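Q: I'm teaching a short session on how sequence maps to structure, and I want students to see two examples side by side rather than one. Could you give me a first protein with its sequence written out and its structure tokens following it? Keep the formatting plain so it prints cleanly on a handout.
A: Of course. Example one:
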Amino acid sequence: MKQTTLEVTGMACDGCEATVTDALEALEGVASATADHEAGEVRVEHDETTVDEITVSGTIEDAGYDVAT
């Protein structure tokens, strides 16, 4: 398992955190996801052979938030 930490903007509350977490945990290969709107950070533990960082970033952006590059 690989742990990826991404800087995410646009999350403003616990509901935002839940939206991001639920979207990521629905992906095959994601073991866990944690979002922290105050830190502007999302941590994802995933199987990098199944889901890569680009897919994780795209899922966060599809949920309506911006991932810093």
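Q: Perfect. Now a second example for contrast.
A: Example two:
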Amino acid sequence: MKKLITHREQEILKLMAQGMSSKNIANELGVSFHTIQTHRKNILRKLNQNSTIRAVTVATTVGIIPSNNFNIPLYFNNDQQY
């Protein structure tokens, strides 16, 4: 599973784990919002998950990203457009 995730997707996963929105990730990495949305969809598909929190949890559990990056706020709402 770890080999399926690209270096760029790992970067995005780390930022997702910090609770950053897609818009903020796009600004941080200097790419478009739509590019980040595509990466997020690919990450969810590759990790076979249907939410950001679950994807980040799996990524930390299997060692794709370090667990010290995990900082999604408790108020995170999957219904919001990130």
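Q: What should students look for in example two?
A: Point them to this: Residues 31 and 78 are 22 Å apart (CA to CA). Also worth mentioning: The first helix runs from residue 7 to 17.
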